[in-house]
Design the sequence.
């Protein structure tokens, strides 16, 4: 198995991307942002074109191209747009495009959660703070923006550093991605989760009229639902238990993304949920402590606040 | 090529991009976030750039999750999201505090200590 | 350094193999010293009493004592320790056997580091235990004895410091004796190292005692750094010893080295592992640092910035002989290397010569004494190197007394003349009222140092080394150099004596007297002369407001100590004549310890005039111009000493009279023909300058220059490189968030790129 | 999960204490509010006791005894830290307000401060019990997020804010880096369970002797990103500014708590990537070993070299803290040695023991700095920070002076003191692992460190006090707890060296290394369907492919 992509081609294209980003960063005077964005995009396109040439059979579909182009393009605008509000809005766009990619990857729940939580909540907070903390621009001119927004710092060195890292990362990924141990072809480790959902199977079977109205899924001697996932069959019987038979589980009855995620989350990471809760509590407390405003206490309020003798060294 | 994502119940209408495609997008997003962090001087945008890097990690996690056909990566993204939210809350509060002190968001204004 | 590294590498070869090398002898009695009989618990008093003294001085400091109490406490504790040392000597030599014993104080640490064959656990054991054999006794005897005497001396000498400084001084003084007893008496290398560092620390603290003097601080720093270089060698040596032998306890080490000694005895050095041969070389580095040998000697002359009692005790008599002790204690290791002893001998010899030549060109009398200390230490190392540990130990013993005597006499002069140390500004001190004892004692010390025949112990101890140098095959050149050095020693010693103590009585007070005359200057409130005249018990009543200076003669404490030391250093001759079978008393002490040339406890018979030919050359004993060196050396060295003294007399006393405008007419008459007038004296001086001094001066200054440029340069460089690098590196710390982020990301990027090129597939 | 909860009692106690503290902190009564510190201390002590008495089941398969040791260590040093921290937030401030200064609620934050403190300690404890990358990520965040706030609010000066913003933003960058690393580690192995990752990577290394490129990149990013917590090169830049800007007690906290978390996390991470198998013995993969080697050498050198030129005590201690991380990295490079290796060869045991030594010695030095303040020319009090403030401290304030001397000499590693016994196993483990050049670098760096540590000690001990300071004198206006904590630390530096042996035994026991490789189990466990057992909901271990 040859390399996924010629490493030197990869590094060259990373360099092209770097040049584009360096050009696109805001700077004093005329900044060739369009040119930069074009060059950067060309570099990225080159990577995918090269990938496509060597793996024509697996050429990704249009959605992938569309969403990744939007994601990366708006990410570029996030870091190049001189106006913080626009940058934040472009970040929202990046998030939305990422959601698209998530959905392409079959992670529907995370995709939508990302829209709601990230784009909906967090970014709104950002916008809020940006508007709070920025002097209201009077005119719609770039000149009215603060100097620190208009001029980026060390664009060349920073870009070189950043893309050195990108090049090294992608280079290592290109070398290693082929040997990651993957599930055997045809095997879906998630299929086993169906065992945890007898109710869902029963409902599906009933809706498809594969079992009768009164039939229920039986329980095996070990307490588990009597399903044979290899053969995709299930033993069902009437409530009295008199009549037992085996019903096939249709191929499209499978654990949905949300269900799988829920099982993973609750079964394997309950502790992490608790820690996340503590982090959120702590962060709330921190934000409150940090953002408190000064208040002036009246003279008569001070003893109440600090107690008698509290203030005397 | 084993790095194909078209395993199991991959949506039929999609053809088969390889894992590496997603990783490239993720790495570039990560790099852009890094470059932004290094070049932008607005504290809020700088923090936005770290969020971009978190987002890149999230994309990689979901792609890996898809590749390994388990949900661990997606679960990880939930927690990444949580931490990002927590960090954002605190960072924004800090930024507000800083802005009150110096009436500016310029990171370069905080350079009293050195050496 | 790279040699050391490769040595360690080969020695390690994976510590795992230690099991084989160190562990095969590891029947390893878990209880330390189980092999050796227990010594009397009285031995524990020796380190304990100085500790008590240290604590008491600390309490005095806390209580704000402003009297001489700390000094008396110190003297009492150290005196008691001396008595205990005497008792220890009695135990060690009185009983039927003269083998080593061990006094166990408490367990220090014991680290289990694996299982040996048979499930025996292997441990690093190092306890607070004291190894008592005759070598220990010999050393502790003069350490505690001299410390007591010098403590008494210091009670008066430091009287001007009473208060916290006085307590601090005596606390450090006690701490030094404690550390020294750990060093000498420890039964394992780690305790020795603890003591080794401890004496270094005390030395640092005491050199820097006058910490307001920049030169004192610089000298303390220099001593510290030079000693660290040596300590690194010792530490590596100890590690290597542990790695190689699996223990640091003497009792076992000397057992385990025995097979190698056997090999060396038959000249089969190539069968001894290189790492074993490396150990003595590393120890040597440590010994050279502590004992101020080439090229690490430069700190010692500078160390004279400390108070004189410190110079006498630490930098002349005891601490600097720690290196000699180390080598003597580990003689069995040294014979296992065919390189170590010649290195020791040659370095010692060259040091002796170098320091003597430098000493000749100095004017500061304390510095001259310091160089002479370096030179005499060189003698001791040369003695060790040419296979006479007895001679070396004997010289250590006698040198301790007469050098302490010399220093204390110089200190008395310095104390009396307001810190004046320049021999050009002092003359005829012996004649001044109240200075007679000092003068006589100085004379005794000088005679000892120069090796005046028959009357002095220095003569016999030096003689032993010289004779052995000619006896041991292959070291004749060393003998000749040492002989030359002996002549130079006699010359510069008496140069001091004749200039300062004889001749016309003239003096010019030192800086501290002037400083004291200026009432506004508080910075020198601590200077010895300061209070000496203010509230001294035999102070010379008169005020000093007029700036007029009167030397003040030493009091009873100083005089007593000097007299006792003078008697001791003469009485030490006795040690040569007692027990002649063993080369004297010291010889017997040495022979029944590990410093003997045969393995300890090997049941050697008394009379062994020649050390066994373990160098393996098998050559016949050398001769001195065809005669038996041991027989003829008495006469040769006597002649050399007398020639040196004569030269000094001729150059420094005889010619000085005409120039004198003072009252020293009697001395003038004694000095020789009055006909030699001022002109003749000038003539002699010029010839002397042109013919003798200039070349030696040049030589001395070349070495001095080497000091300044090379050694100081290195020391400065060692300090400067990190500073410079720090300055450069701290430009990266410019306070900007972005720069930091850039640095972090850049570093990470470099790491990733490097890793990218390292990763395969 | 039930078993897991048993091992989490200390954390639960801490969380409960934090909640109590927060509630008590909003009480209108000053006296009640003042009890926050006491409550926090009691909770911490209780947590430590629980960690001793109730270690629960083995927290990590490879390091069965690591977590209890770390928890007890953190709780123990934490109590001392609390003594130093107590009164930091508002003591002087309350006095100032009483004298008419404007009330600034940013500084009236006693309860929250203790809560952050407890949260952070809780984070370290969680790190030590991590079995999963997700858990590890969250625990690391929980450790560091409160510290950002603590730095920013530790004093009312702009410097604290500056330190806070630098620490926070660079910390977020570091977090992003190691998060990406974790993502790649997961991607390369298909699991976030540390033990499974270890097994998968071990199988790969057994097979081809090379580590997957993705795993390697992930491990490097993770190691360097976590390196931010321990201030390892190249993530060290923030250290000096942050340490200087934060109030001294918080700095003492920063120098110990995140560093402990970082080292424990590094131990766990590097365990997954490979100590203890492969044909080549027990070394790390070559790229990682090389990188760690260089980082260790650079960290020591940079820290020491920069410390030499500082004139601020806190910056000296900051850079020396970098250097100490470098020393400990030597233990990481050396690794745990072969299974059942003795203490002297176990670099991990050396790290664990050194963390204890460093925590105590460093806290002593910071306690002194926290106890001193200087009145500036304008009349305001500020922290004593200049190296000249130490001049003659043994004369003017003997107790503080001697604490400083003992701590500095101990940090230097002078033989009879605790620091020496801490450094010794680092040397021996380095030699044992054959890293002679690195040990030589360590030795040289110890020598450089002597320069500035002796300067600290000598200034306090030998110099005369500054009689006419530039702007107002030095004063000592701190809660007595700080001095007390300093005294305990100094006593420990001296006393623990005599008791080093049992402590070494503890560290040795905590670093017992049991790498087991179950051939084939990892891959099959991962590929098998999630075992649908009845107790899957309550027993995640069964689902994660444990043998």
Sequence:
């Amino acid at each position: 198995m040859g390399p996924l992509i010629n490493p030197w081609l990869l590094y060259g294209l990373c360099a092209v991307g770097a040049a584009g980003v360096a050009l696109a960063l805001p700077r004093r005077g005329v900044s060739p942002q369009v040119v930069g964005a074009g060059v950067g995009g060309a570099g990225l396109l080159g990577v995918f074109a090269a990938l496509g040439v060597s793996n024509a059979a697996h050429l990704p579909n249009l959605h992938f191209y569309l969403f990744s182009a939007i994601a990366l393009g708006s990410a570029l605008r996030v870091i190049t747009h001189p106006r913080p509000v626009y940058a934040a809005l472009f970040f929202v766009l990046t998030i939305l495009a990422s959601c698209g990619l998530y959905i392409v990857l079959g992670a529907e729940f995370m995709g939508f959660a990302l829209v709601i939580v990230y784009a909906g909540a967090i970014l709104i907070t950002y916008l809020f703070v940006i508007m709070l903390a920025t002097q209201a621009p009077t005119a719609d001119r770039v000149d009215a923006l603060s100097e620190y927004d208009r001029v980026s710092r060390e664009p060349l060195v920073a870009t070189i550093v950043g893309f050195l890292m990108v090049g090294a990362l992608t280079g290592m990924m290109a070398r290693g991605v082929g040997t990651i141990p993957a599930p055997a072809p045809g095997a879906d480790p998630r299929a086993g989760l169906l065992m945890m959902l007898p109710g869902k199977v029963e409902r599906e079977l009933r809706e498809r009229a594969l079992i009768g109205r009164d039939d229920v899924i039986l329980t095996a001697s070990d307490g588990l639902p009597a399903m044979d996932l290899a053969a995709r069959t299930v033993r069902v019987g009437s409530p009295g238990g008199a009549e037992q038979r085996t019903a096939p589980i249709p191929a499209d009855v499978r654990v949905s993304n949300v269900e799988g995620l829920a099982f993973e989350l609750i079964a394997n990471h309950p502790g992490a949920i608790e820690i996340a809760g503590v982090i959120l509590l702590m962060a709330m407390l921190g934000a409150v402590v940090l953002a408190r405003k000064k208040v002036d206490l009246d003279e008569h309020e001070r003893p109440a606040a600090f107690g008698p003798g509290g203030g005397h060294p | 090529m084993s790095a194909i994502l078209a395993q199991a119940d991959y949506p039929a209408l999609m053809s088969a991009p390889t894992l590496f495609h997603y990783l490239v997008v993720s790495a570039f997003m990560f790099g852009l976030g890094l470059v932004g962090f290094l070049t932008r001087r607005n504290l809020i945008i700088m923090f936005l750039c770290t969020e971009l890097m978190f987002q890149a990690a999230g994309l990689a996690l979901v792609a890996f999750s898809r590749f390994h056909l388990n949900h661990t990566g997606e679960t990880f993204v939930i927690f990444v999201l949580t931490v990002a939210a927590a960090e954002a809350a605190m960072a924004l509060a800090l930024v507000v505090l800083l802005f009150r002190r110096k009436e500016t968001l310029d990171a370069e204004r905080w350079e009293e200590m050195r050496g | 350094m790279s040699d050391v590294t490769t040595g360690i590498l080969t020695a390690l070869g994976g510590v795992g193999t230690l099991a084989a090398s160190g562990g095969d002898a590891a029947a390893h009695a878990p209880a330390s010293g189980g092999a050796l009989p227990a010594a009397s618990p009285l031995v524990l008093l020796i380190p304990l009493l100085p500790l008590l003294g240290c604590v008491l001085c600390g309490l005095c400091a806390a209580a704000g004592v402003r009297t001489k109490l700390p000094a008396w406490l110190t003297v009492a504790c150290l005196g008691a320790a001396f008595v205990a040392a005497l008792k220890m000597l009695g135990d060690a030599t009185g009983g039927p056997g003269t083998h080593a014993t061990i006094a166990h104080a408490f367990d220090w640490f014991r680290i289990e580091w694996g299982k040996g064959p048979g499930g025996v656990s292997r441990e690093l054991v190092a306890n607070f235990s004291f190894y008592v054999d005759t070598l220990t006794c010999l050393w502790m005897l003069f350490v505690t004895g001299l410390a007591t005497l010098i403590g008494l001396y210091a009670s008066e000498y430091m009287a001007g410091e009473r208060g916290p400084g006085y307590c601090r001084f005596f606390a450090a003084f006690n701490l030094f004796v404690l550390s020294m007893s750990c060093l000498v008496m420890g039964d394992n290398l780690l305790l020795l190292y603890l003591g080794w560092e401890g004496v270094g620390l005390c030395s640092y603290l005491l050199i820097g005692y006058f910490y307001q003097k920049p030169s004192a601080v610089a000298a303390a720093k220099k001593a510290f750094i030079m000693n660290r270089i040596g300590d690194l060698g010792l530490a590596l040596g100890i590690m290597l010893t542990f790695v190689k032998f699996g223990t640091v306890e003497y009792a076992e080490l000397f057992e385990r080295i025995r097979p190698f000694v056997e090999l060396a005895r038959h000249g089969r050095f190539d069968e001894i592992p290189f790492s074993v041969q490396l150990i003595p070389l590393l120890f040597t580095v440590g010994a050279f640092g502590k004992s101020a040998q080439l090229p690490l000697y430069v700190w010692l002359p500078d160390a004279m910035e400390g108070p004189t009692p410190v110079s006498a005790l630490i930098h002349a008599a005891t601490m600097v002989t720690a290196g000699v002790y180390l080598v003597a204690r580990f003689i069995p290791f040294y014979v296992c290397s065919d390189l170590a002893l010649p290195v020791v001998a040659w370095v010692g010899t060259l040091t002796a010569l170098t320091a003597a030549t430098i000493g000749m060109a100095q004017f500061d009398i304390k510095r001259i004494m310091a160089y002479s200390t370096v030179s005499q230490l060189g003698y001791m190392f040369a003695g060790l190197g040419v296979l006479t540990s007895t001679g070396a130990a004997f010289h250590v013993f006698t040198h301790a007394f007469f050098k302490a005597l010399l220093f204390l006499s110089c200190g008395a002069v310095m104390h009396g003349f307001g810190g004046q140390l320049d021999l050009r500004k002092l003359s005829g001190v012996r004649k001044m009222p109240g200075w007679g004892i000092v003068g006589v004692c100085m004379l005794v010390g000088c005679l000892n140092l120069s090796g005046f025949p028959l009357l002095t112990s220095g003569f016999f101890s030096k003689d032993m080394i010289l004779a052995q140098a000619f006896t041991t095959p292959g070291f004749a050149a060393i003998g000749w150099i040492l002989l030359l050095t002996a002549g130079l020693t006699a010359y510069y010693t008496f140069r001091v004596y004749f200039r300062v103590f004889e001749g016309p009585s003239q003096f010019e007070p030192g800086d501290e007297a002037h400083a004291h005359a200026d009432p506004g200057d508080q910075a020198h409130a601590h200077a010895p002369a300061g209070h000496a005249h203010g509230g001294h018990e035999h102070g010379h009543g008169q005020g000093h407001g007029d700036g007029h200076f009167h030397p003040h003669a030493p009091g009873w404490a100083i005089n007593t100590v000097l007299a006792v030391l003078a008697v001791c250093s003469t009485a030490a001759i006795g040690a040569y004549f007692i027990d002649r079978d063993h080369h004297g008393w010291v010889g017997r002490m040495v022979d029944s310890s590990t410093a003997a040339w045969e393995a300890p406890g090997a049941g050697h018979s008394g009379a062994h005039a020649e050390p066994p030919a373990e160098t393996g050359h098998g050559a016949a004993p050398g001769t001195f111009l065809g005669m038996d060196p041991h027989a003829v050396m008495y006469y040769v060295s006597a002649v050399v000493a007398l020639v040196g003294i004569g030269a000094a007399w001729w150059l420094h006393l005889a010619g000085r009279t005409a120039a004198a405008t003072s009252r020293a007419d009697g001395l003038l008459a004694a000095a020789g023909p009055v006909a030699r007038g001022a002109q003749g004296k000038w003539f002699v001086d010029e010839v002397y300058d042109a013919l003798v001094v200039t070349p030696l001066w040049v030589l001395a200054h070349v070495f001095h220059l080497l000091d300044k440029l090379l050694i100081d340069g290195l020391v400065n460089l060692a300090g400067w490189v990190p500073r410079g690098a720090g300055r450069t590196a701290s430009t990266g710390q410019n306070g900007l968030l972005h720069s930091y982020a850039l640095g972090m990301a850049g570093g990470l990027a470099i790491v990733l790129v490097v890793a990218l090129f390292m990763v395969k597939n | 999960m039930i078993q897991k909860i048993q091992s989490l009692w200390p954390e639960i106690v801490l969380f409960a204490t934090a909640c109590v503290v927060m509630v008590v902190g909003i009480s209108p009564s000053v006296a009640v509010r003042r009890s926050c510190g006491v409550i926090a201390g009691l909770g911490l002590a209780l947590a430590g006791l629980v960690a001793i008495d109730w270690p629960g089941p083995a927290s990590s398969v490879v390091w069965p005894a690591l977590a209890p040791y770390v928890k007890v260590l953190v709780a123990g040093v934490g109590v001392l830290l609390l003594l130093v921290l107590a009164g930091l937030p508002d003591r002087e401030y309350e006095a100032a307000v009483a004298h008419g200064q404007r009330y600034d609620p940013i500084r009236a934050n006693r309860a929250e401060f203790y809560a952050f403190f407890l949260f952070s300690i809780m984070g370290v404890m969680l790190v030590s019990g991590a079995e999963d990358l997700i858990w590890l990520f969250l625990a690391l965040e929980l450790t560091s997020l409160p510290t950002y706030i603590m730095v920013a609010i530790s004093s009312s000066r702009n410097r604290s804010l500056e330190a806070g913003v630098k620490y926070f933003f660079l910390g977020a960058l570091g977090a992003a880096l190691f998060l990406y690393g974790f993502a790649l580690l997961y991607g390369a192995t298909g699991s976030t369970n540390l033990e499974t990752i270890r097994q998968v990577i071990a199988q790969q290394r057994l097979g081809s002797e090379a580590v997957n490129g993705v795993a390697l990149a992930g491990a490097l990013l993770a190691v360097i990103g976590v390196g931010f917590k321990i201030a390892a090169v190249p993530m060290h830049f923030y250290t000096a500014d942050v340490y200087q800007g934060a109030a001294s007690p918080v700095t003492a906290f920063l120098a110990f708590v995140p560093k402990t978390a970082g080292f424990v996390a590094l131990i766990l991470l590097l365990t997954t990537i490979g100590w203890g198998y492969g044909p080549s013995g027990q070394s790390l993969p070559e790229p990682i070993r090389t990188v760690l080697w260089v980082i260790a050498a650079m960290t020591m050198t940079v820290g020491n070299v920069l410390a030499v030129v500082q004139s601020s005590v806190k910056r000296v201690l900051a850079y020396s803290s970098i250097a100490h991380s470098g020393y400990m990295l030597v233990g990481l490079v050396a690794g745990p040695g072969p299974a059942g290796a003795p203490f002297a060869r176990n670099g991990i045991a050396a790290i664990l023991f050194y963390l204890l030594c460093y925590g105590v010695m460093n806290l002593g030095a910071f306690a002194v700095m926290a106890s001193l303040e200087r009145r500036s020319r304008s009349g305001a009090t500020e922290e004593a920070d200049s190296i000249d403030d130490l001049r003659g401290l043994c004369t003017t304030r003997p107790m503080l002076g001697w604490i400083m001397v003992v701590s500095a000499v101990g940090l230097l590693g002078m033989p009879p003191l605790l620091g020496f016994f801490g450094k010794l196993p680092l040397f021996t483990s380095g030699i044992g692992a054959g890293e002679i050049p690195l040990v030589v670098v360590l030795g040289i760096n110890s020598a450089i460190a002597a320069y500035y540590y002796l300067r600290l000690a000598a200034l306090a001990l030998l110099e005369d006090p500054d009689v006419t300071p530039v702007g107002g004198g030095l004063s000592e206006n701190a809660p007595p707890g700080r001095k007390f904590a300093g005294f305990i630390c100094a006593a420990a530096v001296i006393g623990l060296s005599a008791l080093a042996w049992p402590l070494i035994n503890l560290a040795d026991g905590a670093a017992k290394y049991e790498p087991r490789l179950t051939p084939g189990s990892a891959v099959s466990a991962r590929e098998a369907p999630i075992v649908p057992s009845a107790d899957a909901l309550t027993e995640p271990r069964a689902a994660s492919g444990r043998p």
Q: What stands out?
A: The interface with chain C takes residues 34, 37-39, 41, 107-108, 110-115 of chain B (CB under 8 Å). Chain B has a mean pLDDT of 85.
